[in-house]
Specification:
Layout lengths: L1 H15 L5 E5 L3 H7 L4 H9 L1 H12 L3 E8 L7 H24 L2 E6 L7 H13 L6 E9 L1 H17 L10 H6 L11 E4 L18 E4 L11 H12 L12
Parallel strand pairs: 1-2, 1-5, 2-4, 3-4, 5-6
The protein binds 3-methylbut-3-enyl trihydrogen diphosphate (2 copies) and magnesium ion.
């Protein structure tokens, strides 16, 4: 009860300030969280997935329009087969368990990344999640799945080159916004804030083009993704609200 009250207070405070339109999150540290408890890494992933429900609730409460979560990178295929299989199964479990709640929250699911190469069951679940929520507009939940920023740029360059060859796009018409339109995030605002749990100070190939001017917020190294509660998220937003975003210009303060 006391915790709910302080969360409510934090939500009211945050709503008085400038709320980011788009927050992107590198959900890191599931393995370390499990190891500290003598558990298998896969158990950490299971607990991690549970945190998405609260995240959506707070995003909705404070009026964030886009939230992107990094669930599986193009580099994560190099992990042990058993771990990759568990992560692929968790996608299915997560969608089965949460999709009605996601739909009722008014959220629309998008996937960033090439999900056509996922195992059939995961692919079917993803297709269902996208289709089942396609009419929602209040909140956009982007799940980065088999996502890599460099792979995304390669795809964008190939798509643009094909249009140039076909005479549909002139080289001189390639601008920053045309490139943005060829990314998985086409039509969406850039992330204002990138959050990473578990203390690592790197982007790990996450949204490199879109995050060019994002504010970064890295949690302390002992806050792993399965520890990520509403309080941590709201703290990150409050810190963001104190930042002075200059975009290369002069301070507005
Ligand atoms: C993040 O946790 C989840 C995924 C990358 C899928 P990790 O599995 O990277 O956990 P650590 O970084 O090894 O602790
Ligand atoms: C980034 O975390 C990818 C996801 C959270 C899905 P990693 O754990 O894969 O990143 P590195 O290996 O520490 O850079
Ligand atoms: Mg990691």
């Amino acid at each position: 009860m006391a915790e709910d009250l302080s969360i409510q207070t934090m939500i009211s405070l945050v709503k008085q300030g400038k709320v980011p339109q788009h927050v992107a999150i590198i959900m890191d540290g599931n393995g370390r969280w499990a190891r500290m408890r003598g558990l298998a890494r896969t158990v950490g992933h299971k607990y991690g997935v549970e945190k998405l429900r609260d995240l959506l609730t707070v995003c909705k409460a404070i009026g964030i329009k886009y939230v992107t979560v990094y669930a599986f990178s193009t580099e994560n295929w190099s992990r042990p087969k058993e771990e990759v299989e568990t992560l692929m199964k968790l996608i299915v479990e997560f969608i089965n368990k949460e999709i009605d709640n996601i739909k009722n929250e008014g959220a629309r699911v998008h996937v960033l990344g090439d999900w056509s190469v996922l195992p059939t069951a995961s692919r079917d679940a993803v297709a269902y999640a996208i289709d089942h929520t396609k009419d929602n507009t209040e909140l956009h939940l982007n799940v980065a799945l088999n996502y890599g920023g460099r792979a995304e740029l390669v795809k964008a360059f190939k798509d643009m080159a094909a249009k140039v060859v076909a005479g549909e796009l002139a080289i001189d018409d390639i601008t920053e916004s045309v490139i943005a339109e060829h990314l998985y995030t086409a039509g969406m605002p850039d992330p204002d804030l990138v959050i990473r749990t578990a203390g690592e100070m790197r982007l790990s190939n996450f949204l490199p083009y879109q995050s060019a001017y994002a504010e970064l917020w890295i949690s302390p190294a002992n806050v792993f993704w399965p520890d990520f509660g509403k309080d941590v998220f709201l703290k990150a937003i409050m810190d963001y609200q104190k930042r002075d975003r200059r975009f290369g210009g002069l301070s507005s303060k």
